[in-house]
Amino acid sequence: MKEKCLWCFRKSTDLKEIELDFRGIRRQVKACDQVCESELRRFIEFVQTGTKWYVLGLAVSILGGLFVTFWRLRIDHGALGMLILLGGSGMTLVAFPFVTPQTVEKLGVRTALQTGRLLGVANVLIGVFFWWFLSNAIS
Ligand SMILES: [Zn+2]
Fold this sequence. Notes:
Blueprint: E1 3-4, E2 11-12, E3 16-22, E4 25-31, H1 34-71, H2 73-76, H3 79-95, H4 101-107, H5 109-135
Antiparallel strand pairs: 1-2, 3-4
């Protein structure tokens, strides 16, 4: 049976088994070679150090954005608040592109990270659009 490398998702019958330690939980995964293995180990470290910033970034963007939206609703239709909410959460996702474990299982870690970054960029663009649209909305 062909298996997939968890990092690049290449199918091969010749993958090496490695053990990853994620928050004290050991898991056996497959990797092509030393390169994919070290990328996976770097990813684990990135998630472990980045999760708190990811959560903080999302919380500040969403709560701050909602607060500013309602506070300035009569001033700018919530334009600035939406920019903070969508732009802030988008930038958080670009810096820490963590997606669901299910997505990682489906795409492999490398593509999942790229997907997370793309979603972040899309979020920022949607935020800028909303900001522009609401700023120009007829009062
Ligand atoms: Zn690989």
